[in-house]
């Protein structure tokens, strides 16, 4: 296990967080993206995340971080023992990446899609060996949140499940394995709730702060749904809601106008400095 090379495709918020977790656990990572600037920002974010995780005791003490290598070449995943796809929650993009990766890796290499809602069985049509494909839903920030949702598709092999559970144990994560369905468990429950919270704010029933305060104080939500939206990335949330709506027809999954307005204005949450809350002063 100590020699396992983990390839992570996509250096956005989730790919960066997962890379921080895996490197912090002592495993080598090759991080792939199509944009050199994105890779450079990810490298800085991973270094900062490692320091944060160490200060908060989220990583095992005394463990030497694994090597991080970044690359623009997808072919560098060919040598990996496990590949984690962490690109945007858009079916066309995921299909393109998963198809290319599955043609490059060795047979029986676990191919993990970090997805928030697209069914694994739908993705199985995009890969060469569907029995190697499995889903995970890491929460953001992945290096701080200890639970991971694991989604077994109808064609996922036992060996793939066992390999992924072993990896998650190695990097200090607890896993719950669920069956395949649009949104699985966490997104199917959380994303419509966030959408409802945005509807409440747009209707003028309560302010953003009051919604989050009530959900924290009365219902025990750790951060409140709208702070959670900022952490997820409002654009990512909209993509996930649209994927859910297309597959379920549930009106609660149709993105609210307030979420769409924020995406149009570039108010995407923490990563852009402003979402439902303003983070620019804290970052300056």
Automatic annotation (TrEMBL):
Family matches, as Pfam families: 3HCDH (PF00725), 3HCDH_N (PF02737)
GO biological process terms, alphabetically, are: fatty acid metabolic process
Q: Where is the 3-hydroxyacyl-CoA dehydrogenase C-terminal domain?
A: 183-279
Q: Does the keyword Transmembrane apply?
A: yes
Q: Which UniProt keywords apply?
A: Membrane, NAD, Oxidoreductase, Transmembrane, Transmembrane helix
For this UniProt entry, which residues form the secretion signal? none
Under Gene Ontology molecular function, one entry of this record is: NAD+ binding
Parts of the chain that traverse the membrane: 6-32
The pathway to which it is assigned is: Lipid metabolism; butanoate metabolism
The 3-hydroxyacyl-CoA dehydrogenase NAD binding domain extends over 6-180
Q: Where is this site: Important for catalytic activity?
A: 137
Q: Which residues bind NAD(+)?
A: 10-15, 33, 89, 94, 116, 140, 271
**Is the keyword Cytoplasm in the record?**
no
Q: Please give the superkingdom of this protein's source.
A: Bacteria
Family annotation (InterPro entries): 3-OHacyl-CoA_DH, 3-OHacyl-CoA_DH_NAD-bd, 3HC_DH_C, 6-PGluconate_DH-like_C_sf, 6PGD_dom2, NAD(P)-bd_dom_sf
- Name the family the entry cites: Belongs to the 3-hydroxyacyl-CoA dehydrogenase family.
PANTHER family, per this entry? Answer: 3-HYDROXYACYL-COA DEHYDROGENASE FAMILY PROTEIN, 3-HYDROXYBUTYRYL-COA DEHYDROGENASE
UniProt name for this protein: 3-hydroxyacyl-CoA dehydrogenase
Q: Which organism is it from?
A: Kitasatospora aureofaciens
